[in-house]
Specification:
The chain has helices at about 20, 60-65, 75-85, 120-130, 135-150, 195-210, 215-225, 230-235, 240-255, 270; strands at about 1-5, 25-30, 35-40, 45-50, 95-100, 110-115, 120, 155, 165, 180, 190. The chain is an alpha+beta fold.
Length: about 280
């Protein structure tokens, strides 16, 4: 099965089989196991291809033992992108996708998406640029609302870090900066996101933002936009969700960096008060 978007079909007229797409040459951006990501150009336009080779049976058995649907090949990502599009979540546009008819263990597949330009990841933005307070608050609001919409739509990302948010620099001064969420190859889609996967996503996001100078007000701003609840209600709720987020984020930071993060949270209630989650629709 191969599906190519109509408006770019001529650019891919030479690719008729799965192997043809897998053989597309480009600059390799990432390689992990049986998966590689390459950037290439056609007709003066930039594209990315994610090429997935056979996985073997062990990763599939692992998922089945954990009562999870096996995350094999490119299909989970293109299904997640299509679901995200349906719910108005900004993600890369699919150009082409396909998989062969082999067994799960021997199947090859691919996904081609448009290059997102102009763009800078939020991780790179905060590492290389002096971000003023106004832009930081606008980005926090936009990221929090995107996270809320993602989870309400039944999607969880599983690699929900600042590096996977791309900012259009030309929109930085607007009320709502334009962000694109990328790398959904591990995303899961359900009718409702289980609490533990909500915790994992938000904890990953918090972990990746621990060194950008977040203040207590920044955290409260995120909580308010993510839950859609008044701060008084957030601080009064004791279901433990935000406590679990913080604990998981701190554990991950210590595991990666070998020390606790230097987070200055002036309001001690943020540390002590377990804060709520919004149940996903």
């Amino acid at each position: 099965m191969i599906d190519v978007r109509d408006d770019v079909a001529e650019l891919f007229a030479g690719e008729q089989t799965i192997d043809d797409f897998l053989a597309i040459e480009g600059v390799e951006a990432r390689r992990f196991g049986n998966r590689s990501t390459r950037r290439f150009e056609r007709g003066g336009r930039g594209f990315y291809i994610k090429a997935h080779g056979p996985t073997g049976w062990w990763p599939i058995i692992e998922d089945l033992l954990k009562l999870r649907r096996p995350q094999v090949g490119a299909r989970p990502e293109w299904e997640a992108i299509r679901a995200a599009n349906t719910h108005g979540i900004p993600v890369p546009e699919i150009v082409a996708c396909g998989e062969d008819r082999g067994s799960w263990a021997s199947r090859s597949s691919f996904l081609v998406t448009d290059e997102v330009i102009p763009a800078i990841s939020l991780e790179e933005l905060f590492e290389t640029t002096s971000v003023d307070a106004g832009l930081r608050r606008r980005l926090i609001r936009t990221v929090a609302r995107l996270a809320r919409r993602l989870h309400e739509s039944g999607l969880n990302h599983r690699d929900f870090y600042l590096c996977h948010f791309l900012l259009d620099p030309s929109s930085a001064d607007s009320t709502t900066p334009r962000l694109t969420l990328i790398d959904l190859h591990r995303a899961q889609l359900r009718r409702q996101v289980p609490r533990r996967w909500q915790v994992k996503d938000i904890a990953g996001l918090y972990f990746s933002a621990m060194d950008i100078g977040l203040s207590g007000r920044d955290l409260l701003l995120f909580l308010g936009c993510y839950t859609g609840k008044p701060l008084r209600e957030i601080l009064a709720d004791h279901d433990g969700f935000w406590h679990d987020v913080r604990q998981r984020a701190f554990r991950l930071y210590r595991k990666i960096h070998g020390q606790a993060p230097c987070i200055d949270v002036p309001n001690p209630e943020i540390r002590k008060t377990p804060l709520p989650t919004r149940r996903a629709a």
